[in-house]
Design goal:
The chain is α+β, with helices and mostly antiparallel strands. The protein is built from twelve helices and 36 strands. Strand 4 and strand 5 form a beta hairpin. The chain starts with 19 loop residues before the first strand and ends with a helix. It comes from Xenopus laevis (African clawed frog).
Amino acid sequence: MEEMEEELKCPVCGSFYREPIILPCSHSLCLSCARNILVQTPDSESPQSRRASGVSDYDYLDLDKMSLYSEADSGYGSYGGFASAPTTPCQKSPNGVRVFPPAMPPPQQPHHHSSAALLLPMIGPRNSCLTCPQCHRSLILDERGLRGFAKNRVLEGVIERYQQSKAAALRCQLCEKSPKEATVMCEQCDVFYCEPCRLRCHPPRGPLAKHRLLPPAQGRVSRRLSPRKISTCTDHELENHSMYCVQCKMPVCYQCLEEGKHSSHEVKALGAMWKLHKSQLSQALNGLSDRAKEAKEFLVQLRNMVQQIQVHLSADKDTKQKENSVEFEACLVAQCDALIDALNRRKVQLLSRVNKEHEHKLKVVRDQISHCTVKLRQTTGLMEYCLEVIKENDPSGFLQISDALIRRVHLTEDQWGKGTLTPRMNTDFDLNLDSAPLLQSIHQLDFVQMKVPSLVPAPPLLHLEECCNHNNSATLSWKQPSMSMVQTEGYILELDDGNGGQFREVFVGKETMCTVDGLHFNSTYSARVKAFNKTGVSLYSKTLILQTSEGLFSRMSATFAGGLQIDAMPSPLEFLQSPDQESFVSPVAWFAFNPGSAHPDIIFSNDNLTVTCNSYDDRVVLGKSGFSKGVHYWELTIDRYDNHPDPAFGVARVEVMKDVMLGKDDKAWAMYVDNNRSWFMHNNSHTNRTEGGITKGATVGVLLDFTRRTLTFSINEEQQGPVAFENMEGLFFPAVSLNRNVQVTIHTGLPVPEFYTSRASLQA
């Protein structure tokens, strides 16, 4: 029952509903809170003028989203008024929902008002607007004001039963200080008495002698079972609801059918529709109940995963090989000690990676537990509230809210699908230590005997005519010298990390051509080859310098040992003139969005260049290519932009969260923007609010400059705000987050925009 309490509290005051009314959007408000958030509208928005123009009083307005305010300048807020009214900062209710402040009272008139005029503002001004604090939909009140809204009697009954169930003991209602526990309840007076107050206020003589006194528990049941007031028609207050209008989906009275706007509508019996909607709500709850049961089992599974991950933390202990060093000389001891030291340093590095993987797994699973727990609590509260609503015996009151509840139950059930109950992380560690090559080398460790020089293979020759780059792959070819007579068993190709680091083996085999994938764009790699046979290993070939880019072919240079530089080579490759000179190689990159790493709700089209979403929540999609060097610029055009959402654009690590707005975690750097302004966001920190938003057809540019380690954004080829982020280091992927109201298309392979090049030249 405790989870249901959130369903029973007003979104404005945060307390239990008092005299709740039902808005056309199916949400409820306290009557007093509705009075407080009324906003005076211009004369042009009066109900009479709207009828003359053929617009319904209950049409939702698009003009009410005028200004967004945030206490932390984060860009989140609520609708701020009408186009003709000054913008007003919104307030936050105890429930966390942002609402309008009370409308300013009109200036006092010098002449006297009639009593009827003084009572009218208590219900609401004639020309006034009410904005729902939950869905932000607005409507113009008619001449009846707040009296035109039906009372939510079902909600009142549920709140009364809930409060009674929470009371530990019934207290006397007449004690002035520290009410004592009640001993009796008068059925006629409907009052609980303690013994002293009963003797003083309800003596067993005179007119009160005929009253029936009951025990407190029985009196509570009697009060709950007493007939509730029958709801009446909002248009004809003296008439009770008797039928149900199928077209308007609301209970109506006999007079509405005779002379009202429902006279030509299809109607059905109130009792029959009451039973039908109760049956529909019960059926919907069955599906939601199954989802809640699966969610509870899923939470148990996630908690077990946490325990398993913690158990798996214990690292495997490598078997230490004992060496008998008695027969070794001091030089051999020093060499082996150096190998052991290197192995220990590597062990520390590997253990560090294991610990990071462990922390990452725990964080992902715990975040999913937290997210699933909150959603389950909300689902359980909705289920308990719906079950209490089904217990109500007021058909018209039930039918006033049943449609909205059925939609909420189906929507909540849908939210539990789409992979929600699938773990985002497995308990197994995917780090498998490949120690076989090292063990093989250890087993082959032996004293080197003098080799015959003529039996060692000659250094291979790089076949430069067949070496080339395409995208982020490099193909290298080599051959043995034509005059060499020594048999070769295989070759070893080594490549550095593109940053001047140590060489590592990328290929061992008999083939004389190898393609290496996954290189970084606009990076400089060094490659070399050596041959081997049973006798030994040859010297390295000349070093080949690869300058990667994203064109059809990349420019390359061949620098040989001793500084010898080849100046001319056959087509199709063009080589750099000197390794010491700067050479321009266009760092443009062509790529599309990556369906393999995107959230399941993302929809792809146009060869994965265009994306949208089938969810109202923000979902993340990454580009196929990652960048760690160079200057990269791409643009995204807004193909569709409905209802003023907040799409986000930027870059992210590959492990970024996919089910929240880009920039909510520490793995993404983004700019999110609406139709009026934008903000920068990283690790849920919002900065640099800048005026100027997007519409359909707008272009958002993202510029990632690793030479200055900065990230900059633009809108319609104009820089948006200052430099968004600095100290950008590592591997980043282009990223976008959006919902179903947005569709974007990415354009890549673009040159650096003029506003950035001109600024760079001024700084230089």
